[in-house]
Design brief:
The protein has 261 residues and is mainly beta. It contains one helix and twelve strands; from the N terminus they run αββββββββββββ. Strands 1-2-3-4-5-6-7-8-9-10-11-12 form a twelve-stranded antiparallel beta barrel. Strand 9 and strand 10 form a beta hairpin. It is globular.
């Protein structure tokens, strides 16, 4: 039976996902559903991957993977995440993107923490040749019930973007902006082997209220063994000011295998 708080978390997670639907603008969720180190000191690694290869009437190659390396020592925690996706249909690339994110977290007092992070990413099919950012801000952890955790953060980030070359009027454009980056992370243990998580991001550009990015991601992690899990995730994102020729809405439904140790 799902406990009342588990049901509440489920409903809230679904509602947050619908608020941002459908969508994967330039925000990428860098918060793993279950921390790679499980809250314990020391090193830990979690790896995810998926592949879809077809031949015949449909020729398709779709590959994606991510890895998280985490380290915790008392009040100090750091993790490095890398992600990459590539898809090709009938010899034509349809997805080509990657991301690298490094974050350091310091426990200050009680539930209050501080974060500093840097990130690089690119996405050929959103015409993003380069995005580099650095940011910092406070983070507050909340755990009102057993098996339920939440965290909220507001950070200030400075980002630099360069668009790819091409025939579009903004081709090659370079922009450096400051944004606020607020996120809410929810996690609930529905059963000992089933965990539900949701992350919601809001990133308005400072000085231009109409330029805002939103991301909602809901994930369900089912543990098959101590080291092997199946994760199903749905992400939706919205970019109010995308590059020329790029749609503001994207949505992704994905199933992956996760190996952690």
């Amino acid at each position: 039976m799902i406990r009342p708080y588990g049901l509440a978390c489920t409903l809230l997670a679904l509602s947050l996902a619908l608020l941002a639907s459908p969508a994967s603008a330039q925000i990428v969720n860098v918060h793993p559903l279950i921390a790679a180190n499980g809250g314990k000191d020391g090193f830990a690694i979690a790896v995810e991957g998926s592949a879809d290869v077809r031949t015949g009437n449909t020729r398709l190659i779709a590959l994606s993977g991510s890895a998280i390396a985490g380290y915790r020592a008392g009040r100090h925690q750091a993790f490095l995440m890398t992600r990459a996706e590539f898809s090709e249909e009938n010899g034509e690339p349809i997805v080509n993107k990657d991301l690298e994110h490094l974050r350091y977290r310091l426990a200050i007092k009680g539930p209050l923490e501080g974060e500093v992070f840097v990130q690089h990413d690119r996405d050929d099919f959103r015409r993003l040749a380069l995005r580099a950012l650095i940011g910092a801000g406070p983070r507050l952890r909340v755990a009102p019930f057993e098996g339920f955790e939440a965290a909220v953060s507001v950070a200030l980030l400075l980002e630099h973007e360069q668009l790819a070359a091409g025939p579009e009027p903004d081709a090659g454009q370079r922009v450096t902006d400051a944004r606020l980056s607020a996120y809410l992370v929810l996690s609930s243990s529905v059963t000992p082997h089933l965990k539900l998580g949701n992350t919601f991001y809001l990133q308005p550009r400072l000085g231009r209220a109409g330029d805002v990015r939103v991301l909602g991601e809901t994930s369900l992690l089912a543990a098959a063994t101590k080291h092997l899990s199946l994760k199903v995730s749905f992400s939706s994102a919205y970019d109010a000011a995308p590059p020329a020729g790029v749609l503001p809405l994207d949505a992704t439904l994905k199933s992956t295998l996760q190996v952690s140790f």
